[in-house]
Amino acid sequence: MSERSGQNDELTLLGNKKTVYSFDYDPSVLESFQNMNTHRDYFVKFNFPEFTSLCPITSQPDFATLYISYVPDQKMVESKSLKLYLFSFRNHGDFHEDCMNKIADDLIKLMDPKYLEVWGKFTPRGGISIDPYVNYGKPGTKWEKVAFDRLAKHDLYPEKIDNR
Amino acid sequence: MSERSGQNDELTLLGNKKTVYSFDYDPSVLESFQNMNTHRDYFVKFNFPEFTSLCPITSQPDFATLYISYVPDQKMVESKSLKLYLFSFRNHGDFHEDCMNKIADDLIKLMDPKYLEVWGKFTPRGGISIDPYVNYGKPGTKWEKVAFDRLAKHDLYPEKIDNR
Amino acid sequence: MSERSGQNDELTLLGNKKTVYSFDYDPSVLESFQNMNTHRDYFVKFNFPEFTSLCPITSQPDFATLYISYVPDQKMVESKSLKLYLFSFRNHGDFHEDCMNKIADDLIKLMDPKYLEVWGKFTPRGGISIDPYVNYGKPGTKWEKVAFDRLAKHDLYPEKIDNR
Amino acid sequence: MSERSGQNDELTLLGNKKTVYSFDYDPSVLESFQNMNTHRDYFVKFNFPEFTSLCPITSQPDFATLYISYVPDQKMVESKSLKLYLFSFRNHGDFHEDCMNKIADDLIKLMDPKYLEVWGKFTPRGGISIDPYVNYGKPGTKWEKVAFDRLAKHDLYPEKIDNR
Amino acid sequence: MSERSGQNDELTLLGNKKTVYSFDYDPSVLESFQNMNTHRDYFVKFNFPEFTSLCPITSQPDFATLYISYVPDQKMVESKSLKLYLFSFRNHGDFHEDCMNKIADDLIKLMDPKYLEVWGKFTPRGGISIDPYVNYGKPGTKWEKVAFDRLAKHDLYPEKIDNR
Amino acid sequence: MSERSGQNDELTLLGNKKTVYSFDYDPSVLESFQNMNTHRDYFVKFNFPEFTSLCPITSQPDFATLYISYVPDQKMVESKSLKLYLFSFRNHGDFHEDCMNKIADDLIKLMDPKYLEVWGKFTPRGGISIDPYVNYGKPGTKWEKVAFDRLAKHDLYPEKIDNR
Amino acid sequence: MSERSGQNDELTLLGNKKTVYSFDYDPSVLESFQNMNTHRDYFVKFNFPEFTSLCPITSQPDFATLYISYVPDQKMVESKSLKLYLFSFRNHGDFHEDCMNKIADDLIKLMDPKYLEVWGKFTPRGGISIDPYVNYGKPGTKWEKVAFDRLAKHDLYPEKIDNR
Amino acid sequence: MSERSGQNDELTLLGNKKTVYSFDYDPSVLESFQNMNTHRDYFVKFNFPEFTSLCPITSQPDFATLYISYVPDQKMVESKSLKLYLFSFRNHGDFHEDCMNKIADDLIKLMDPKYLEVWGKFTPRGGISIDPYVNYGKPGTKWEKVAFDRLAKHDLYPEKIDNR
Amino acid sequence: MSERSGQNDELTLLGNKKTVYSFDYDPSVLESFQNMNTHRDYFVKFNFPEFTSLCPITSQPDFATLYISYVPDQKMVESKSLKLYLFSFRNHGDFHEDCMNKIADDLIKLMDPKYLEVWGKFTPRGGISIDPYVNYGKPGTKWEKVAFDRLAKHDLYPEKIDNR
Amino acid sequence: MSERSGQNDELTLLGNKKTVYSFDYDPSVLESFQNMNTHRDYFVKFNFPEFTSLCPITSQPDFATLYISYVPDQKMVESKSLKLYLFSFRNHGDFHEDCMNKIADDLIKLMDPKYLEVWGKFTPRGGISIDPYVNYGKPGTKWEKVAFDRLAKHDLYPEKIDNR
Ligand SMILES: [Ca+2]
Ligand SMILES: [Ca+2]
Ligand SMILES: [Ca+2]
Ligand SMILES: [Ca+2]
Ligand SMILES: [Ca+2]
Ligand SMILES: [Ca+2]
Ligand SMILES: [Ca+2]
Ligand SMILES: [Ca+2]
Ligand SMILES: [Ca+2]
Ligand SMILES: [Ca+2]
Ligand SMILES: [Ca+2]
Ligand SMILES: [Ca+2]
Ligand SMILES: [Ca+2]
Ligand SMILES: [Ca+2]
Ligand SMILES: [Ca+2]
Ligand SMILES: [Ca+2]
Fold first, then answer.
1. Do the chains contact at F125 and I129, CB–CB below 8 Å?
2. Which family does it belong to (chains A, B, C, D, E, F, G, H, I, J) (predicted)?
C-alpha cells in the first residue's frame, strides 16, 4: 500500500499490540524513522494540547499546549512515540522553561534536524501564565540564521489572554 | 461570454455529463488549462477541508484540511479535476507527510508552476495532530528564493489548538 | 475584614502552609464550609479545564474541562479542596461516565445540596469525544423537578466541534 | 433638552465637579433616581468587567466581570454611583459568593426593584474559577416566580473556559 | 415586478431624489406601509449598529447597537424611514433607558404592532456599560402574554463583555 | 446501494446531465421526493448563504443568508431543486419580507409539511439590516402550536451585529 | 483499578490487539456494555467531526459533523465500536436524512435507550448544506414527551453559516 | 463644508437622483476623482462581500468577498461607481482568476495608481474553494518592488476554512 | 504620587470641572504634554471605535473605528483632548480619506512625533466599506524609512468582512 | 526531582508559607534566579490580565492586560515575585505610559536581559483606550538591532476593538 511499508520494522509503536505508558520522564521511548522526502526541505508541526507536568517545588500539576515544528534532515520523529514521550512528563517535576528546553534537546539528539522549535503555552497560576519558546538551527547551515531570525520575530502579535 | 471560451475543449470535467469518482490514488485525473493572465504573476489558492486518506499501518481513516497555493507559469490546474484527484486518496494508505509531498510533486509535474505550496492540517489521533507544510520555487528563478523565504517564515504564529 | 472570618477554622486549606497533592482518587480531601446566604437560593459554578484521569483499560491519559454547578443548602464546597479532589483523579483509572457520576456522588454526600450538576467535556480519542452530563435535585423538594427539567433541556444547542 | 432634566437635582454624580473614589466597601455612595417609564416593565443590564476585591484569607486580589440586570419599580440606580460602589470593593476582603449576595442585597435595599440578578465570573486561582449567580423577585408579585424560573434555567449552556 | 408596486406611492423615501437628514429627534420622519402577508404572523428584525445620541447632562456622545424586532399587524415600518428616525437622535440629549422607551412608544404609535421589542447595547463610560431592553404585546391579545414571557426570559445567557 | 434507489426516477436533477439556471422567480423548478422515514418526526435544515434578489424600487442587489427548516410529512424537497429555486430570485425584484413569505408559501404548497420555517438575514443598506422570520405549522395538528411557540420564542438571543 | 473492570470481557475493542476497519455499512460492529450508574438518569454525548459517506446518486463523497446524545437505560454504546460503526459508512451510498435515521435506528436497537438524538451537519454542495436532526424517546415513558419537546425546540438559534 | 467641494462636478454618482444598475460587465461606470492628499503616500482599502458572477461553463452563480487595496497617485476611484462596476459582473460569465485580473486591469487603467491589489475569496463548489490574488506596482517606481514583495509574502497565514 | 505631577498644569482636561463638547471640527482642543521617557523609543496606540462624521455630499452620518499609533519625540497627545478632537468631527462633512489625512496632519503639527499612523475602518454604505491608512516618519530620521516599510507591508492579512 | 533543585534557596516565594501582598509600588519584591539553559537564546512570555493601577490625576482605577516577553541572559525573573510586583501597582497612581516604562526599567535592572518588551492594553475611558508598547535590546549586542526591528514592526495588524 504505502511506499514506506518497507520501513515498517522501524515503527514498533504505530498499530502495535499493547502500548505501555510511562509517567516518569523517559526520552528512551522516542523513535525515529527515515525521511522519505529528502529531495526538499519542509516543515512538520505537532499540536499537543495535553501536556502536563508537576511543579518541582509544590508538586502542583501544570498544564500546557505544545506546538513543536521542525524541518527534517534524514530522520523524523514517529508521532505516537512523541506522544508517549510527552506523556512521560506526567509525574515529573520541572520548571516550564526547563521542560521546553529538555524537549528540544531530546528531539535534536534523536533526529539531528535542520531546524526545530518548541513553544509551550501554560495555564495560569495566581493570575499569571508563562509561555516559553525555544528554537534551534543546525550550526554551520543556513538554518542557523533561520533560527535566529525566527527568534527575533517571535510572537510579534501575541494572542489575547483573559484567563477565561 | 467568457474570453476563455475558445479553451473549453480542454476542460472536460467542468459541466460535463457524468463525473466518475476514483477512490484509489490517481494523478491521471488532473487536468490543466492555459493561464490567460501571463502579463502578471499572481496567486491562486485552493481551500479543501474534505481531504481523507487511510493510515498505511492501521488503515484508520485520516482527515485534514488542505491549503494549496501557487503562482502559475503557463498552465493552471482545473479545480474540479483537483477535487477529483484529492478525493482519489480516499481509500489510499499513506503517511501524512508523504501525502503532502506527493500532492506537491504531482502538481509541479502537471503545471510546472513558478511557485507552489501544500499545507495539510490533520485531525488528532491520541491527542496529537500533525500539520506538514511543503513548498517549491522553480529552480533558477527568483521563486526559488521566495520558496525558501516562505519556508523560513512558515507558521510563525500558529493557530490555537485544543482538540475540540 | 470578612464577615465570614469567624468561620476560618473550618477552612484548613486556603492560605495554609503547605499543600499536599494526592494523585490517587481521594474524596477525603473535600472540605465544606457554612453557607452564609441561606436567605436565598443561588447558583455557584466551578470551571475546571485541568481535569485528567487514566483510561482504566489502556492507562492512556484522558483530559477534560469540567463544569460543576450547584445550589447550596447549608453547606458549600471549599474551592481549593475541590481542586485537590479533582487533581486526585490524576493517576486513577476510570471511564468518563463513571468519573462524572462519582464526582456528583461525592459532592452530594459532602454538601447535601439542593441541586447539583457535573458536565465533563473530554478531548477526542480516535476522532470521537465524549461529554457526560450528570445532575441531581434533592428528593422531595422542588429541585427534584428542576433537575429533571434541566436534564430534559440539556445541551439543545451543542457547541461546534472540529477536533482542532 | 431631556425630559428628565427636572430630575437633575437628584443626580449628584453625573457631570459633577470632582469624583471621590472610595476603596473601602461603601454602599452609601449608591444613588437612585426616578423611573420615568413606569407604564411598562423593562430590563436594564449593567456590564462591569472591572470588578476587583481581595481574598479575605490571603489578601490576594480577585478579579471578575459582573453582569447586573434588573426590572425597575419606582427607582433606578444611577450608573456612575453604581460604578463607584463597585470600585469600593477594591481593598475589601470577602468571598466571591458573599460579594455577589451583598451587591444584590444593597441594590434591593436601594431600589426595591421588581426583579434583580447579579452574576460574577471570576478569574481562576490554581486552575479553578468560580461564578456565583444570585437573583431576586419581589415577594408577593409575579416576579417572585420569574426569579425562581430564571434560577432554575440558569446557565444551561455554559461558555467555554480554557483559562487562556 | 414586485407585487407590492401598487403601494409605491406610500414609500416616499426609498429610491427618492434627495434624502434630508435631521439630527434633532423627529418621529415625524417615520413612514409605514401595508403588511402584504397578513395570512400569517411573522417577525421582522432590524439591526442598527450606528445609533448615537448625547448624554443629557454632559452632552458627551453615546453609542449603541440597536436590535428592534416586531410582529406586524396591518402596518410595517419602512426601513429607510426608520434609519432616518434613528439618525435623528444624533444631537438629541436623553438617557439610555428613555431613548429605548421612546423608540418603542413611537413605533407602537406608528404601526400598532402585535408585538415589539427594542434592545440597546451601549458602549461603556468609565468601565461600565448599560443595555436597556423594552418590549410590548398588544393588550387583550395573546401577544400580551408573549411579551411578558419574553421579558421574563430576557438575556438568560448574556454575551461576554470585556470592554475591548 | 441506497434503499431509496427505487425512487430515483423522481429525482431528475441530482446527477443529471445539464443543469439549466433560471434567474427569474420560478417555483416550477422545485421537486419533491418521498419521505422514507415516516416512522418518526424529524427536522431537516438547509443553510443557504448565497441568496440574492433585487430591490423592487431601486433594482439594487440584495444579499442574504437563508436558514430553512422543516419537519416532513409525506414529501421532502430535493436539495438541488431548492438551490435552483432560490437562485431563481437572482433578477427578481421583491421586498425582503415578501421574499421570505413567498418561499414559505411555495415550500408549503410543494411538500405539505408538518412544520416549516424560513429565516433570512440580509446585509445592511445605509447602516441598517433586516432579518424576516416566517414559520408555519399544519393547521389542526400539534405542529400548529409548535409554530406559535417557536414564533413566540424567536431570536431571544440575537447575534452580535457590527456591519463589518 | 476501575470498578468496571469485572466487565472488561464485554469490551473487546478498547485496547485490543488489532482493529479491523470496515468501510461497508456494518451495524454488527456496534458493542454495548452495562450502565453502571442506573441510580440516576444522565446524558452522554458523542462529538464526531469525521463522518463521511457517498452520495447514492453521484457517488461523490459527503462530509459531516455528527452530534449523538442519549440517556442510557441498562446498556451503553462502547465509544470505539461507535467510531468503527460510523467509519463503516465510508464507502456506503445513502442520502443525508437516511443516514441519520439509520444511525438512530441502529443505536436504539443496540441499547434500547431512554432517549436518543442524532444531529448531522453536512458540508455544502453547490452552495447549500443540509443538517438533519432525528430524535427518539422510549414509548410509554416520560422520555417520549421529552423527545417531542426537544424536537419542538430544535435549533431555535441556528449557528451562522457562510460556507467558508 | 468639505475642502473637496469644488470637485463635486466630477462626482456624478454620490447623492445623485437615480442610480441605474447594469448587470452586464461594464467598466464604463467607473469614475475617478482627484487625490487631495498627494503630499503623502497612503493606502485605501475597499471591502466588498457582495461580489457575484456566473460560471462561464455552467452559468451557476459564483459568490465572493473582494478586498481591493491601492496607493493612489493623482486619481482615486469613487466608491459608489466601484460598487456599480462590481455589481455589473452579476450576469457576466467568467472564471474566478479572470475576474480578478480584469478588475485589476480596469482599475489600473482608470487610476494609474502607484500600487493596487485585488483579492477574491470565493465560496466552495463541490467542497473546494478558490481565492485568486492579483497585484501591481507602477513599473519604474519603488512600488514595482513593493508589489513583488507583497506577492512573495502573500497569505503566509491562511484563514481557517471548514465550509460552514 | 506620580512622577509626572509637576506637569499637571499642562493637563487642563483630565479631571477638570466641566468638559465642553464641540461638534464642529476643532483642532484647537488638542493638548500635548511632555514625554517623560525620552531615554527610549516606544509606541503608544489609541483605539477609538466611536468616530463619526458626515458625508460631505449627502450629509449621511459615517461611522468608523480608528487606530492611531505613534512614537513620541518630546511631546505626547493627551488622551482626553484627543477624544474631544475626534468627537469634533461629529457634525463635520468630509470624505473618509480626507478625515484620516487631516487627523494625521493635526497630530503631526501638535506633537512633531518620530512616527505616526492613522487607520480608519468605516462601516459599509451600499454593501461596500472603505478603510484608509495614513502614516508618517519624521523626514531625515530612520523613522522615514520605517514609515515606508510599514506602508509597504500594510494589511497583508486583511480581517474577514461580511457586513454583519 | 528537578535538576534545578540545588537552586531552591534562591526561590523564597514559590511554595513558601505566607505570601504578603503589597499594594504600594514596590520593586523590591522582584526576585531572580539563574538561567539553566544558557546554551541557547530563547523567549519567555508572561501573560497578565489582572493589572490595575490608579489614574494619578483622578484616582480612578485603570485596568490592563500585560504581555511581558524577554530573552534571558544569566538571570530570569521568578513568576510569583513578578506577580507580586505587578500587584503592587494596585493603589499606585501613574500614567499608562509611565507604568509600562517603569516595569521595563525595573525588569532590566533586575535581570540585565538580552531583550525585553512590555505591552499594556488598557480598558477604555470615555470611549478611547491606550496601549503603550516598550522594548529594549542590550546595547552593543545584536539584540539592540532586534529591539529596533521589533519596534519598527510593532502591531502592524491591530486587533479589532469595539469597546464591548
Ligand atoms: Ca480567553
Ligand atoms: Ca479549538
Ligand atoms: Ca485520537
Ligand atoms: Ca474547534
Ligand atoms: Ca490562577
Ligand atoms: Ca493560582
Ligand atoms: Ca478561553
Ligand atoms: Ca469610559
Ligand atoms: Ca470583548
Ligand atoms: Ca449601505
Ligand atoms: Ca460583525
Ligand atoms: Ca462560516
Ligand atoms: Ca459545493
Ligand atoms: Ca468556517
Ligand atoms: Ca462580520
Ligand atoms: Ca470587542
1. no
2. Belongs to the GTP cyclohydrolase I family. QueF type 1 subfamily.
In DSSP terms, which residues pair with A66 in a beta bridge? A48, A120
Q: Is H49 helix (H, G, I), strand (E, B) or coil?
A: strand
Find the E62 Cα to ligand 16 centroid distance in Å: 17
Ranges of residues in chain I whose predicted pLDDT is under 70: 1-17
C-alpha cell at I32: 500635548
Span A21-152: which CATH code? Answer: 3.30.1130.10
- Is the minimum CB–CB distance between A5 and chain C shorter than 8 Å? no
Report yes or no: E80 at the D interface, CB cutoff 8 Å.
Answer: no
Environment of ion ligand 4 (residues, CB < 5 A) = C 162
Of the candidates A26, A55, A73, A112, the residue annotated as catalytic is: A55
Domain covering F25-152 assigned CATH 3.40.50.1360 in the classification: no
How far off is chain B from G46, nearest CA to CA, in Å?
12
Grid cell at residue D83: 460604578
Are F164 and I129 a contacting pair at CB < 8 A? yes
Nearest by Cα to J63 from A130, E126, I47: E126
Sequence-separated (6 or more) residues with CB below 8 Å from residue B7: B33, B34, B36
Contacts for A59 with CB less than 8 Å, ≥ 6 apart: A93, C20, C21
Chain B positions touching C126 (Cβ under 8 A) are 60, 125-126
> CA-to-CA distance for F94 and F102, rounded, in angstroms?
10
- What would the CATH number be for the domain defined by I18-121+129-152? 3.30.1130.10
What's the whole-number mean pLDDT along residues B30-40? Answer: 96
Nearest-ligand number for the alpha carbon of E163: 9
Q: Give the gyration radius of chain E's Cα atoms.
A: 17
Nearest Cα neighbor of I131 from H73, H12, F164 is F164
Residue matched to cell numbers 438617557: E95
**Hey, what CATH topology would domain J32-152 get?**
GTP Cyclohydrolase I, domain 2 (3.30.1130)
Shortest-distance ligand to the CA of residue B123 = 3
**Residues lower than pLDDT 50 in chain A:** 1-3
Q: Which of J55, J94, J112, J131 is catalytic?
A: J55
**Interchain CB distance below 8 Å, J61 and D50:** yes
Cβ–Cβ gap B131/A47 under 8 Å? yes
Cell triple for H119:
483579492
Residue I129: beta bridge partners? Answer: H47
CB B152 within 8 A of CB A152: no
* CATH domain C27-152 topology: GTP Cyclohydrolase I, domain 2 (3.30.1130)
Phi first, then psi: give them for residue E13, nearest 5 degrees: -95, -45
Q: Say which amino acid occupies G126.
A: G
- Ligand 12 geometric centre to CA of H164 (Å): 5
Ligand 7 center from residue E5 Cα (angstroms): 51
Specify whether the CB–CB gap between A119 and A79 falls below 8 A.
Answer: no
Closest C-alpha among A75, A71, A83 to residue A20: A83
Name the pLDDT band for E3 (thresholds 50, 70, 90): very low
Domain ranges, ordered by start, for chain G:
29-152
CA distance E127 to chain A (A): 16
8-state DSSP, A74: S
Instruction: Walk along chain D (164 residues) and give the pLDDT tens digit of each residue.
Output: 444 545 555 555 655 557 889 899 999 999 999 999 999 999 999 999 999 999 999 999 999 999 999 999 999 999 999 999 999 999 999 999 999 999 999 999 999 999 999 999 999 999 999 999 999 999 999 999 999 999 999 999 999 999 99
Distance, in Å, from the CA atom of G93 to the CA atom of G91, rounded to the nearest integer, reads 7
C-alpha cell at H152: 512573495
Question: How much is the average pLDDT of F31-44?
Answer: 96
Q: What residues in D contact I1, CB-CB < 8 Å?
A: none
pLDDT in tens, H22-31: 899 999 999 9
Q: Residue range G70-78: average pLDDT? A: 98
Nearest by Cα to A73 from A104, A118, A108: A108
